[in-house]
Structure formats: C-alpha cells, structure tokens
Amino acid sequence: MDIKTLIVQRLISLILVMVGASILIFIVIRVLPGDPIASILGMDASSETVTRMQVELGLDQPLPVQYWQWLTDALRGDFGNSFTFKLPVAQTLSDRFPRTVILSLASITVAFAIAVPAGIVAARFKGRAPDHLARLAALIGLSMPAFWLGLLLIFTFGVQLQLLPTSGFVWPSEDPLESLRHLILPAITLGTAYAGTIMRMLRASLIDILARDYILAGRAAGIPERRLLWHDALRNAMVPTLTVAGFAFGVMLSGTVLTEVIFNIPGIGRLLFEGILSRDYPLVQAIVLLNVLLFIGINFIVDILYIALDPRLRG
C-alpha cells in the first residue's frame, strides 16, 4: 500500500470515527445521573434561577438542536465555555494538555527502557532462566493495578524514605531537576503498566525473526551473533512492536485519569475526571474528541513508520 492511499483511508476513518464519537459522548454524558445546573447553582436554587441558567447554557433546547449547535461551533474551533471553570474550553485544554504530554513522554521512555532490554534478553535466552524471569516480571507488571503501584511508590519513596515528591507538577523550564524529581514516580507507575505488553510483543517478534532462514544463513556464514541480533533481527522486530507502543502512547496522551489523580498532576486525565463529576458537558465532550483525535493520529504515525521500516509494505 502506498502512502497516498494510506493517508486517504486514514482521513476517511478519522472523519467517520470523530462523528461517531461525538454523537456517542454527547448522548452518554447526558444520560448519566446528575444535573450540571445543580452542580453550578446548588440544590437550593429557585426554579426561576434554574430556568434562566438552562437558557443561558442552551440546555433548554432539544437534544438534536444542542448537538448540531455544538458540532458546528466545534468545527470552527469553538468548544464553548466550561460550566465549572467559566473559561473557554480551548483555553482550559491548552493549559492542561502540555503537562499530560510531558508525563506521557517520560512514561513511554520508562516503558521502553524496561521493555527493550528485557525483550532482547528473553528472546536471546528463550526457554532459559533469563527468559522465565523476564516473562514473570512482564506478567507482574501487566497484572498490577496502576493505582496500587502508584500508592506503593508514594508510600515507599515519598512517605517512608522521603526521597521523592509525591504530588504536583513542575515545568522543566522553571526547574529541570525538580521537574524530573516530580516525574519519576508517576512515570514509573504509568510506564510499568505498558512495559510488559511491549516486552512480550518484542520477545515474540524477535523469536520469530531469529528462527528465519536469512538469520540462520547469516549464522552459517559466520556473521557475528551480535550483528545479526542488533542490526537485522531487532530492526524487523520493532515493526510490530511499534503498534503496541503507539497504542500505549496514544492512551497516555489521552490522559491517564488514575495516575494524574493519585499524583495530583493537573493534566487532561484529571481534568476529565473533574468534568465528569461536575457534569461539565462542553469540557467532557471536547476532551473525549481530543482523545479520539490523538489516538487515531498516533496510530496513523505508526502506520507510516511501518512502511518506512519494512520495505515489503511499500507500494
């Protein structure tokens, strides 16, 4: 498949998925228990005040009219004003999203730092003790709830040893060292959750490639094992591994609610949590649409990397 065809297909998919996601979240957020007017005014507000607020927010209109108005505004980049923060949603997102990006980059770095060496060792020593230990560690990482690991790290390194801060966020531009210290625990919490999946995919891909004829022929020709592993096998094994890594990074960018709430990081995930609790319709709808766009965008980039890394996929 050539790149032009891929781009056209992905753009069509993007439009269809975005429309479907917008309709779904518009309906779901409105059928959940709770009333945004009550969240704003309180339970003791008079009926006249409630009616006036409904008109002001456009909630007195039929649902199809509300959806169409919101969709047409969103296409112009206007996602409305947050019920909770009394600010444009776009401004609120622009304030929070960079923190999630920084956390995601740190977390995917941790995931690769764990997964790649473990996957290589496991594949190189298939069926032996290092392989068993690596797979056991991956299984533990996959089965361990992120919130539990986060609380364990907070208790150990924050409360008991008092080595690292347990909450908050510091911009790298303000204090690089302090920013790194604040990122260590949440990045380990989030990165560990995906390291096991990436490691297992890399191990399986490497085992498959190391058993192929051209690798066996290279061994017979006397090519060093290190060169076969690092130059030939690893590059090809990274192609399917990128799919898993792209999925993980897309989820991270979409906002990891539990991690950001536990470590008190004011990112997209925590913002979504706050928006759902307060029934902030414009805010929740915008965040979910942003998440869908990011997820599709990351997977589109992964598809392009597929073609770049594997010549067989080029048209």
TrEMBL record:
TM spans (from-to): 12-32, 101-125, 137-163, 183-202, 237-263, 283-309
**Which stretches make up the ABC transmembrane type-1 domain?**
97-302
Where can this protein be found?
Cell membrane
Task: Please provide the Gene Ontology terms (biological process) for this protein.
Answer: transmembrane transport
The record's CDD domains line, in alphabetical order, gives: TM_PBP2 (cd06261)
Q: Entry's Gene3D superfamilies?
A: MetI-like
Query: Record's InterPro entries?
Result: BPD_transp_1_N, MetI-like, MetI-like_sf
- Keyword set includes Mitochondrion: no
Please state the protein's primary subcellular location. Answer: membrane
To which protein family does this belong? Belongs to the binding-protein-dependent transport system permease family.
Q: What is this protein called?
A: ABC transmembrane type-1 domain-containing protein
